[in-house]
Amino acid sequence: MAATKAGFIGLGLIGGSIAKAIRKYYPGCELIAFDKSRESLALAVQEGTIDTACSSIDDNFKGCSYIFL
After folding, report:
1. Which residues belong to any copy of the 6-phosphogluconate dehydrogenase NADP-binding domain (predicted)?
2. I want to staple 7 with a disulfide (CB 3.0 to 4.6 A). Which of 20, 45, 52, 61 is the partner?
3. pLDDT digits (tens, 9 = 90+) for 23-37
4. String of DSSP letters for 2-65
5. What is the mean pLDDT of residues 1-9?
6. For the chain, which domains are there?
């Protein structure tokens, strides 16, 4: 994956699993995410699954090579 930044809108079972796989196989990829649940976002940052938790879908997602919905 040549992407340097990937975004997730929703970190449920599918989004969270994809984020964990990308983190495992492409550790240099920057991962950002938005989710309605602040607890899910905080846990994902704490576990190192994502780099940045976003409180809204905004300009943070502009530079993403991929966005997972």
Report:
1. 6-68
2. 61
3. 999 999 999 999 999
4. --SEEEEE--SHHHHHHHHHHHHH-TTSEEEEE-S-HHHHHHHHHHTS-SEEESSSSGGGTT-S
5. 83
6. 5-68 (3.40.50.720)
